[in-house]
Amino acid sequence: MKRALVSVSDKNGVVDFCKSLVKNGFEIISTGGTYKILVEEGIKAIEIDEVTKFPECFEGRVKTLNPYVHGGILHRRDKQSHLDQAKELGVEAIDLVCVNLYPFKATIEKTDDFEEIIENIDIGGPAMVRSASKNFDSVMIVTDVNDYAKVIDAIENEKNTLEFRRNLMIKAFEHTAAYDSMIANYMNKRFNGGFGEKQFIVGEKVMNTRYGENPHQKGALYEFDKHYSNNFKTLKGEASFNNLNDLSGAVKIASAFGSDNAVCITKHGNPCGFAIRDNLVDAYEEALKCDPVSAFGGVVAVNGVVTKELALKMNEIFLEVIIAGRITEEAQEVFASKKRIKLFEMGHDKLVLANDEKDFKHIDGGFVYQDADKVNDDEVKNAKLMTSREATSQEKKDMEIAYKVASLTKSNCVVYVKNSAMVAVGMGMTSRVDASQCALKKAKEMGLDVEGAALASEAFFPFRDSIDAAAAAGVKSVIEPGGSIRDDEIIEAANEFGMSLYFSEVRHFLH
């Protein structure tokens, strides 16, 4: 008779799984809470100390760390010397191990009690998982409740192949690696400010993309904390590697304004249109005015619900991707005839941001890791007025919008906002002067009036030339971090032109 060792923290589905194992000729060995549930459900099971010939001890800290357990899992069935030694020692083979680990993540989310946290670090579980994984040639290792049906099917239909067990083994090592990484990251966060000698970045695969940035590169989407699984639904088309990067940038900007009816249009990860209005149709129309040329084939993030009326308006040009809180069925029908458009929703009335605590970028040979940048609302509200003229209430609102958009746009950048809509943007430039001039040049080409707009920069102006250019265009209010050795010149220039100048004293580079 084959033997299965079943010891799980997540009890979902375990009773039916064990019933199927017994039906297929398995003897069940179990521990603690799992054993109790199985017996209560009428499943005959052997308690672990009958196998170990040693009582569970130290308040459950030691129960499976035993040669009868690990010998039963690890001895090789293809070596006669192992079989002979197992017989000599009285070690019986364990052919299937079903283990998932103590809920460390759930524990740290609910408590800061370090003693309780320590007690929810699994020791015996990972040891059994690793033992079974190492001996996958003979042993099935099951760590995912979603695999129970698949495992029973393999047992019943002669699909328990070496390849099948190898795939279970890979998943098992991923399981223990992610578990240990989570513990190490938590301990470094608690005691080393989150920056220990090792940093582990663990993501769960959501899907493959057709390719990476280019067709000769492979690509896939991985997620943290089920963000995409819970908040990303494909309605039409297939998200590419580049689409995902672009829509991430668009969603960050559009969702940065809470419940406001905001629409952001991006191209290659940078905003080319943004507006807030009383309704989303008007917001989209205003956002599009900023740069309809770049918007062609772009990505649109709608902080709300795409209705049929909005869909008809958006359908007037070619858009590659639309992501929204929701997209109604009537709106989806409007887009049905457009073969190339891709539609995604988040299943909520508004867009949902993951709000990751950390950020990292790949560099050649490694990665740089940092706290995620956040733009706090009080940065604008508490910004210091540096000139004699104070901004009007509308100018302050425009400054807040421009400041947030600039903070989420590639440096060097400047953003011009008028009446809650972006009218000019220059981004990703090697000089802030170029960014200012390019933005104004584009606005002129689009026939947009910058007179009375608010200007935001994500870092300080090193010289007054950008202020001179803004004044010439009719800008009335400016917000920037300040901190230049020439701040006095900047302030003097703003006063000279009768402009409002505010320093937030917080820089937001985005490289």
UniProtKB/TrEMBL annotation:
This protein's name: Bifunctional purine biosynthesis protein PurH
Domain notes from UniProt: The IMP cyclohydrolase activity resides in the N-terminal region.
Residue intervals of the MGS-like domain: 1-143
PROSITE patterns given in the database record: MGS
Gene3D superfamilies, sorted: 3.40.140.20, Methylglyoxal synthase-like domain (3.40.50.1380)
Keywords on record: Hydrolase, Multifunctional enzyme, Purine biosynthesis, Transferase
Family annotation (Pfam families): AICARFT_IMPCHas, MGS
Catalytic activity: (6R)-10-formyltetrahydrofolate + 5-amino-1-(5-phospho-beta-D-ribosyl)imidazole-4-carboxamide = 5-formamido-1-(5-phospho-D-ribosyl)imidazole-4-carboxamide + (6S)-5,6,7,8-tetrahydrofolate; IMP + H2O = 5-formamido-1-(5-phospho-D-ribosyl)imidazole-4-carboxamide
One Gene Ontology term from the biological process aspect of the record: 'de novo' IMP biosynthetic process
Annotated NCBIfam families: PRK00881.1, purH
SMART domains with a match to the protein in the record: AICARFT_IMPCHas, MGS
EC number, as in UniProt: 2.1.2.3, 3.5.4.10
Entry similarity comment: Belongs to the PurH family.
GO MF assignments: IMP cyclohydrolase activity; phosphoribosylaminoimidazolecarboxamide formyltransferase activity
Organism encoding this protein: Sulfurimonas crateris
This protein's GO CC annotations: cytosol
Pathway(s) this gene product operates in, as recorded in its UniProt entry: Purine metabolism; IMP biosynthesis via de novo pathway; IMP from 5-formamido-1-(5-phospho-D-ribosyl)imidazole-4-carboxamide: step 1/1; Purine metabolism; IMP biosynthesis via de novo pathway; 5-formamido-1-(5-phospho-D-ribosyl)imidazole-4-carboxamide from 5-amino-1-(5-phospho-D-ribosyl)imidazole-4-carboxamide (10-formyl THF route): step 1/1
InterPro entries (UniProt xref): AICAR_Tfase_dup_dom_sf, Cytidine_deaminase-like, MGS-like_dom, MGS-like_dom_sf, PurH-like
Signal peptide: none
